[in-house]
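Long-time lurker, first post. I've been practising inverse folding by hand and with some scripts of my own, and I keep getting stuck on stretches where the structure tokens seem ambiguous. Below is the full token string for one chain I'm working on. Before anyone asks, I'm not after the true native sequence, just a reasonable design that respects the backbone. If someone could post their per-position residues I'd love to compare against what I wrote down in my notebook.
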């Protein structure tokens, strides 16, 4: 049985914002892993090399690292004043 949110989902709720940001990060990681592994698979099958591929992978890892730092250290999940 899938987990359920105890209340009606509301972006104003700090706990909901925190879990939503973490789920978005997980989706971002999954997309990056899927695309990068596909690119490296095709790269390994081809006789020619893609010199730009390590830069793409390193850049995407950098973006993921910045995203992780933001959600773990910078994002403010305290109650918003309305």
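-- Answer (accepted) --
I ran through it position by position. Result:
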């Amino acid at each position: 049985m899938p987990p359920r949110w105890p209340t009606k989902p509301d972006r104003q709720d700090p706990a909901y914002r925190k879990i939503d940001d973490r789920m978005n990060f997980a989706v971002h990681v999954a997309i990056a892993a899927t695309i990068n592994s596909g690119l490296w698979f095709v790269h390994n099958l081809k006789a020619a090399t893609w010199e730009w591929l390590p830069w793409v992978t390193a850049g995407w890892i950098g973006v993921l690292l910045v995203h992780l730092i933001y959600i773990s250290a910078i994002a403010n999940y305290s109650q918003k004043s309305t």
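A couple of notes from the structure itself: The radius of gyration is 18 Å. Residues 14-74 form one domain. Happy to go over any region you disagree with.
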